[in-house]
């Protein structure tokens, strides 16, 4: 077999701090490199083929000029970006994996690439036979974010009320379902009628479109809230402070309102932290992986297979779509977890 | 014995939301009422004489028009305010206390008054023989605030760094000493050279006057901080976010910057909660009393008696001084815990 084109997604140009990335300029698909997958030397490594790539809002933060400090590393201009992906092993000189095995990890957006070793990669057996794409979504990093944060910080009590933002997304929809399993009343917001319907379908007691209904009025009527699951920050966070019950827990997972506006909005109602004895917990999924990963993989794929946990996907095909899908998830135009299917097998 | 004047401190006029209370108008001392302490009927209650009254910044929040909602009850206009006090029993028809016993509680600022029962009052034995005034300070509510918050939320690890605001006050000075006992590096701020000296005397590694030195530069040089003990909010809170280490704990006990300025300042650097996986905990001392009170009274008065925990008091005499002392503590003109000695025994 001769060399074949090996497509990749390059970080081409940093978007301005304010505004959305440009679907054509920020990320660029290139196919001018080739690889002979049968003969390319592995030097002890593992040749993999990318099957599914996850596109998530947090990527926005890494698409910046490297001189700007943040909590995660900036992507390197001119190089492929990375994201959580499922890849299948084509050839291996590593005794721990063999051709046909599936790996999950934060891999480069390249059709074929060689892993030096298994650092950061996890072998997925998928005994349950659920779609591979789910292992980048509700059974992957977003699902873990929901599950780990819920187990570690939510301290749910039956009959309490939770408010979940971006409740139709892969994290939020998992939080809604975990909260219902624990007997809570769930208020959930999203930005379109289709998303509201999905939130109702998975059990939200009060699902509303924040673009057409007043979050303030909804929380006034259905609150106060004992848990606030925050993906958005900004004004909604201030409303959550306003409508928090005493001893409420705020779980801070994202502040998407600030991602494309050059900064996080000031918080006006912070005084409630003191007045209401609130607990606020920020976290990223990696903090809790050692503690909860095994329980997650034991529990969640099986529950998905049995239909106990539902999901919705926003599926595009081919790495060429990466730039547009990123803009879609930042604007909220996706319904369900955004994934790119690069190859079926 | 005939009736004697029974002085009291009345909530005379609510201060404006913005600005300090007026030392002459907000609280007014009245001595036109009398009591015959030997014959006044008790109806099963307990006649006590006030010995010491504590004056604390949080009182500002209760001196408001009652239509304004807050986390604590507004004082009633025209009635005596209440505060944590030590009183001695003169006569008792309650079998649980007798003349000569000392009680600690949130009592009215009146020289002589009758308690219906012991609800909210705690008998203090003072086997250690420390000054009674300390039971309203480092061995009272402020000391408990420091001790309870430290035990429940600080999660200190030897070698970590803490930043304590208002470190010369009764809460802050206790926090400094608890942190040193646990092997931490302590950065502490206060607003005068005398206060800075006191913070050094009790063990602060870096003690500075925030009025003459830059908090930002001090934290840049001696941080990052693993624990932030917040009494002030506002800009200092934003600097604490800026200089927080990953996984830092913020303990929110007061937001004094906002008490006299009509509101809490917006928080600009809240994004760090997410980026640095911070934990923020607001609390009031009453939340934790059931869990930690016994340990506190077993440990702290004895440590004070042995000289292991040091203190500083700002002592005034007579209930007439209440209005001025309140302004003093809100302006930070006091050095040490503000107490009013009403009677020596």
From TrEMBL, chains A, B:
Top-level division of the source organism's lineage: Eukaryota
Keywords: Oxidoreductase
One GO MF term: oxidoreductase activity, acting on the CH-CH group of donors, NAD or NADP as acceptor
Annotated ranges, domain Enoyl reductase (ER): 23-340
Protein name (database record): NAD(P)-binding protein
